[in-house]
TrEMBL record, chain A:
The keyword Calcium does not apply. This is Sestrin. GO terms for cellular component: cytoplasm; nucleus. The lineage of its organism: Eukaryota, Metazoa, Echinodermata, Eleutherozoa, Asterozoa. The keyword Magnesium does not apply. Residues 267-297 are annotated as: Disordered. It catalyses: a hydroperoxide + L-cysteinyl-[protein] = S-hydroxy-L-cysteinyl-[protein] + an alcohol. Residues 274-290 have a biased composition (Low complexity). Keywords: Cytoplasm, Oxidoreductase.
From TrEMBL, chain B:
GO terms for biological process: cellular response to amino acid starvation; positive regulation of macroautophagy; positive regulation of TORC1 signaling. WD repeats lie at residues 112-154, 199-241. It comes from the Eukaryota. Residues 353-370, 481-493 have a biased composition (Polar residues). Residues 353-377, 456-510 are annotated as: Disordered. Residues 747-796 form the WDR59/RTC1-like RING zinc finger domain. Keywords: Repeat, WD repeat. It comes from Patiria miniata. This is GATOR2 complex protein WDR24. GO terms for cellular component: cytosol; GATOR2 complex; vacuolar membrane.
Amino acid sequence: MFKVCSSGAGTCGVFLGQKDSKHFCGTSCASQAEVRTMGKRVRANSPLNELQRYFFEDGQVKTRPTLCIRCLQEKGVKVPRQCGNGPSAFIPRSEFAAAQNGRDEKAKDLFIDVFLQSNRLDHLTTVMGLHPSYLEAFLRTQDFMLRGDGPLPFHYRHFIAIMATARHQCSYIVRLQENEFLAQGGDPDWLRGLTFIPDKLRRLAELIKLLVHQPWLITKEHLDDLLKGPSSWALSELVQAIVLTTHFSSLAGMVFGCGVNPEIDMEGGHTCRPPSLGDDPSSPSNNNYSDESEGASSNIEALMQKLRELEEQSEPDETQEEKLKKFEKVEKQNVELSPPCDDPCQDTSDLSHYLIEPDFKYKDFAKRGEVSQIPTFKAQDYSWEDQGFSLLNRYYPDVAPMLDDKFRLAYSLTYNTMGKKEQVDTSLLRRAIWNYIHSLFGIRHDDYDYGEVNSLMDRALKTYIKTVCCYPEKVTVSHYESFWRDFKHSEKVHVNLMVLEAKMQASLLYSLRAVMWLYTR
Amino acid sequence: MSRTVTDGVRGTVGRTTFGVEVEGSINAVSACRDSSQVVVAGRQVFKIFSVEETCFRETLNLRVGRITLRYSCSDVVWHPLKDELLATGATNGHVCTWNLQKHQGNKLEQEFTDHSRGVNRVCFHPSEWHILLSGSQDGTMKFFDLRTNKCEATFGKQNDSVRDIQFSPQSSFNFAATSDTGGIQTWDFRRTDKYLLSNVAHLGPAFSLDWHPEDRNLIATCGRDKLIKVWRLDSSDNGMTVENTVYCIASVARVKWRPEKKYYIASCSQVVDQTVCIWDIRRPYMPFAVFEEHKDMATGVVWRDPHVFMSGGKDGMLYQHIFKDAKRPAESVSPVGVSMSIYGNICQVLSKSSQPESQQQATNYSNTRKPMSFRRRGPAGVQDVFRPYESSMLVHNNQEKGTFSDLFVSCAQRFQLTGRPFPELCEHNANVSQELGRYQVAQTWNMLKLIYSDNPMAKPTTAPPESLKQTDNERVPELSVTPQPTDNPNHTVESAAGQTDDDSALSDSELDGHTAATLQPRHTRDGSGAAAADFFFGEQVRVDGEGEVDEIYDEELNTLIMDAWTLPNEAFTQRHEIVDTYRPPSPDQSQQYKPNTVTPAIALIDTEPDSLGNQLLVAPAINPSAAKQLPLLQLSVKFTPIVADMLTFYANQGDVQMAVSALIVLGDRIRDKISLDDQEQWFMSYIDLLTRFKLWCISSEVTKLSNHSNVSSINQQSTTVYTKCNHCSAQLDRYSWACQHTNCRKLTNTCSVCHLPVKGLYVWCQGCSHGGHIQHIQEWLQENPTCPTGCGHYCEYT
């Protein structure tokens, strides 16, 4: 009947629901409390009316909802509570305290905005809140994609988001987007699966399949096909669909990569069981994490040493072939980091009705011992800054500068720290990670020495990145914990942000190149 | 080894357009000093062609030996003095020089590996042979001395990729560079620590720049923001200003001034536009000449002389273009413009050449103003082959009176859509239409009034008092124009005055035959007044459930419908009796009343507004509207489809004004009979028209009255009111009660009584502009006469 969540130290939201007929929330910042009483009047003597007495005082939400909840519990009402501990299963809750307690002003303001807009502060936003400057750009972009100007109807946008994330089994985003889809007046029938949606959207499934898993297979024929025939797409619509798909499929990686917990109103997100004493208040990852941090700080030292060496090192006297070989070596090694396991995905909810060919997955760009049919994508020949941006700006105006900001922020974000060390120039490391992610998609930067990837990134990090990037549904806590043991959580989240953005840029480049080919080939 | 491919040979010998395929996309082209040879470079190609009369002839392929990334060139430049020297910048960051006089296969002379990222541009000093500059993605510019073969100096900071770098052709020490963040900088070659001038030239990367070949203070830059800007360097105050801006259709990758033509510049774009455009910088929107040979983006331009240039493209073609073969977009554009104002005036602009014939065309628009002539000449002193543009503007005033626009405006202003009882609205609107000579519309309003309005006697003005009944009855025959051949004097008692009024109105308005036809048989079949009387009283009886009356009713059903709604005057004496026994109709009952109904009446009964024409109903205990309007319903139900058709007819004719006005006045009577989409379309087009005539108030009123969710949402768009902080004038975007500005961070006006921020209603004294929480002020002013702040103002709370 009703759900109560108290997530984080200061935030408390109350959701009462008879299918949304009653819905009000209160926050710690009482000034911002938005009281929404929608729908029918509550009949006298109904339990809801009684509830109303608890929660309202002269038409205002009481400032202490927790008190109200306690009252209810005393009355014997089952109050569900959050299953997971904090926003993320990987990151201890204490990490997010700064933003939630208002010590981080910028993050707090952004959180307030998110709350006002969507009536909830979702866990994903909370995790991203560790990097407020990025979060700001991210929210602006996502808001524009879903609610701003654009050729696609709003419910289409949300449905495309559903189709894209369902390919990664990411029920978290799928559920959020399903809600949004319905709120935009979408036909509930569509949520029953691809057979119930219009032809036009269904035709997109093939392109989404490629975009999400193997963007390098996209050719102009795929696009040409969609632009013709009955229920065809306009090019500007198609470009928006591509942007949405790349955005949300990369976002799914972030959700899994940071182990974002389901929201309280999702399946598996809440329990009515009272918290037992055995439940450890701090998350497990926190425990062994702190244990090892002292002993392992040598890892950082070693990494910094390598960084220094690379910086001081004069240009190695090696031929170009050696460099090419290095790239190929990195590519080959990518292959060796095989899909971690064939364990079924952690997320058991069935999203197969949104998919075609559910077995279509990421395949290594370069097969071991095989000559790849598809040529490597040379970053210099079709770069985001030169061609990608301009083309996108033409077909989907305004979004290109926002994406540009977002890419740049994710790439250049640094606090000059590494774990506990300060005043570190991390640019080499960031470039290595970025280019490594691109190499997973067969994009080569001519001017980069791929030897650096191997010297700066250890196997655990590469495994983690590859898993987040290509098989996000298979990320486990052990993946997350095994890399960069002595780095801060926020730095690990930054790695995830880079995966998100680099992956999005890679898929965008492939698809925009295909768009350009429509006119030049 | 050499291979010749020519195509597109056109024009006379010597100067022709021709091209050659070079097997690989071209990133850059450069020509030697006398333009007899040209080098092309790209990821897969590095070749030298000699330029012949009608073709390119491949003379040398430099891409030999071990193929490495150094052959993946992003730029190539031929030495301006030494014909044997070339320099390339590679995508992997290497800068190479090539000596063509070397005898072995590999002509590589020097390789500089100082850049850590890809090199975007290389350039030689125009007069000092040993100076080579390079600009790289890593944000630095390096000076390589070809005598020592070392990097001698590094310019620039790290985090801003250099896109282009060019020496000034006149001053021997200055060079300019553009960057990824859109900046342009000029440097003195001798000072490595600091630039001379710096400016943000473009939004997004500035891809290329070119110094003007003659004017030493002019630089052209181009960028991703689709602009070409011409900057004038001001040496006196060390600034740079934009002189001209050219607006292209796509982001611009390269610019190159046309030699010997001061105002001409060539550009090629990064995406979308595959042409090479030559612009006159004084004409910013239309290229002067366009060359369309390339099938993919053109990447480099080299001038041979003012009329011939060569270009390479991503499609792997090297072309020589001559001006004779160019497309001149300006010539194919018809220099005529026509525009029509909403009041029917027409403005026409023609160039002089096309004027005579168009003046012959006679229209019913009389030319009331003298044609105005505009003349534009090129600035004096500029030798140009082009004649000055001359054009004239003609304004034709519409002299036809009573045109659509006049009618529309006065109708829009005078129609009343709400605020009065329905019949009065109809009558008013009918009168308005009548006065304006729109007779058909006037009739329509009258018809609507008849069909939907209640018993006319319900209107105090028209309902004759009971005492006058007799005279009314007498008047009936004269008043009713409808032929009543078998009219029995008896019958009039019941049909009474109201009926006669209506009949006459109906016939006056020449209602379609339908109404007349239904009227006539009634009189013929009606025969005896007794029957009619029975019918009337039967209403009362029928409600009581007497079968006998039902019979009568059934008999007369076909024709009596018209009759049914005219409640005779006598009814008033009995009204209470009638309604006392009357209960709101159940579905079965209403079914009974209208055996030949078209649509279910229940909905109508429910939605029929009580307010219209029911003033005289005096029995509050019962459901007066239902009781009273039941007969009326039968009429309106019958006519509703016709009215809906009629509105559609008006709308299709283009008179959305009538359609929408009627829709609003009729309100719920008709709303559910017309599809919501149609309604929305009518409303939208009417509102659109109103806005064009700047009738803002009316358009807003129509929006308000539309009662259609999509339409009324117009009024909720851009309704944000922006407020500013009263201390620092910064915009208040998040809260209205606290300033977020970093330097201010104060509360805006607090409550004068409790000094806390006011988050809800703020009550304000208009005299002293102090105020606060509404309750606090209220309480305060109950006890004190003056302002709570102590400003001494005698505030008053009303």
